Structure prediction request, 292 residues.
Amino acid sequence: MRSDVSLICKSCGHEIKEEIYVPEPNYAAERASDSDVQSEEDLVCDSCGEVYVLDIMNSMGGLFIYIDGKEDENLSYSYPHFEDEHEDTDWYIETPYSEFYDFAKYSLREVETLLSTNWHDPSQEAVAHRMLFAQCITILETYLSDTFKSLVLKNNDNTLALLEFDKDIQSEKFTLHDFASDPDLIKKKINAHLSGLMYHNIAKISTLYNGVLQIKFDFGSHENRRKLFKAIDYRHDCVHRNGKDKDGNALAFIDEQFVSETLNIVETLIDNIEDKVSSAGDEDELRESDEV
Prediction:
């Protein structure tokens, strides 16, 4: 697997950009917290020669990269992808938007069904609740990713809006030979770029939805928004610290009620986004919504 990494060098201020190797998670693990696979990569500033050691942790719950064991605000990285993963552009163009929504709703119902299971062992119940909680966030990420890519790739106006709004993709350079060799180059590059975004970064993704599609995220309430942002932090602890925070305290509050509440917040956001998408009435055209 690969990830696109960007780091602002602390020594000279130069932006380092590089695609790095990311190990695949341990898919055979029984628990998401046991699927962690770790590795190290050196990132070298090609301006001043400063060397940074990246601590890479990849699991079924997501990718996390640290410098000297700590998160760095100057470091950003894409969601891990396989080298040939970006060849699915046609699939996003041909698949109806409704399928992404239907799959998200089906997945949420699956979580509800499993949540109602009677666990006889309290330790098993705690593990199940953490896994189901993490799955709620994964369902949201997948819906946001698939829907946005499809909306942008299907519609030329949305494609142009992204190219005008997203400063990162504007920096891409191509020659006339590149365009002549591949008429679908722009769509493929956009798909690759969008596949590299971290869709649990709700602040950034909501800005993209609003700036490109004029779709404002409606969480139902400010309290729901606050809880969802906090839940994403808790998901990190569930996946990478086996349900404990950085101080070693168990997240014992992740119980059936907490998972159910998180599921409802996720579903509210997905439903409200889908309402704005479907309100256009035509999958080839999105119109601006006045909803907040």
Notes: The first strand starts at residue 2 and ends at 8. The chain has ten helices and six strands.
